[in-house]
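haha ok so turns out i had the wrong file open the whole time. this is the CORRECT one, sorry everyone. sequence first:
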Amino acid sequence: MSRHLLHLEGPSPGRQLQGGGNKTNVALVVLAVIASIAVSALFIVFLYYCHIRCKVKKSDGHRSKKRDDKLPESNTISVASWKQNDSQVFTFKQLQIATSNFNQCNVVGHGGFGSVYRGVLSDGRQAAIKQLDCSSKQGDHEFRIEVDMLSRLHSPYLVSLLGYCADQDHRLLVYEYMPNGNLQEHLYSDGASGNPPNLDWETRMKIALDCAKGLEYLHECVTPPVIHRDFKSNNILLDSNFNAKVSDFGLAKLGSDKVGGLVSTRVLGTHGYVAPEYALTGHLTTKSDVYSYGVVLLELLTGRVPVDMKRPPGQGVLVSWALPRLTDREKLMEMVDPVMEGQYAVKDLIQVAAIATMCVQPEPDYRPLMTDVVQSLIPLVKLKKGSKIVSTHDFQHRMVTFKSSSIDSGSSGAGEN
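then structure:
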């Protein structure tokens, strides 16, 4: 009886073990199924990732091949960050036809790395076509910098690049045509028939303002800033209405993106326009361009070239001769270009002299920003009725960001003043 009661009181130990074993088996099966699903999902995700990566690589390879077809290889400049743009790619044959086989009658200028021809493109547009010296490695470097720079920079105060040619060994740049040539031709013309006309005060002030806006755009609307490094009257071109545009970016260099930063580089530029600290140390900042701008402003004011050793002692270097006179009212009146006699108000003349004085200060920290120069010149420019002065900052929606490796492989380092 007692054994029977014991049997009825609960399951035997053997049954308990059998039930626990079933639960364990079910749990293991569930875990195995979940693990299989997770592994399958991860495998599918991995396959999809590989598929997308393969597509991206093919796309990048295709774009890279297109870029390499358009531009010659070079160890001096990387085109890894090249952007597609509106610049047209021309064949050498097309530009031969446009310039009547580079007829000497169509030569409109000469640069450090080649001649510039007037041409008519197949769509009827006039263009200035610069042919670079094929034997010059520096010319090839200049070509690549100009294409990369001007393909990205867009301002009404910079000359537009219409296209380029990199056909075999030929290197040509195609710009918008500027009918009135460069500023230098007008400043030092005798005004005789057949020569460029002399410029009056109002036109010179408008040119000064346009140039200041061009440099302001390079310094303020580009990251890091672009330092032109060869700003001079010969590189300021004039359209049919004498609006000025900055040209020739072959020596341009990316500056430091640090406040007060500098880059160290070889000293390049044109004698008489180069800032003293850059000439002595190779340290380049946006204030180097400000100095060059000040020299051009003195040219506009006096009608004198920056360096002329044929002049009497003490007058050969424009900046050295002009600085002590710019703050003396009587001497200031005497140094103004005689062509502009009676065309200006004395207070305006004093204001321009003050701007020029600040721009050519020996110490770069004492020079103004180009933004300040623009604001100082605006009140001096009298425009025709209906005209409007457009602020450079109206174009800030076109801010440009450069990578140093894409343009500028020649700097030896960066630091701070």
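The first strand starts at residue 88 and ends at 89.
again sry for the mixup
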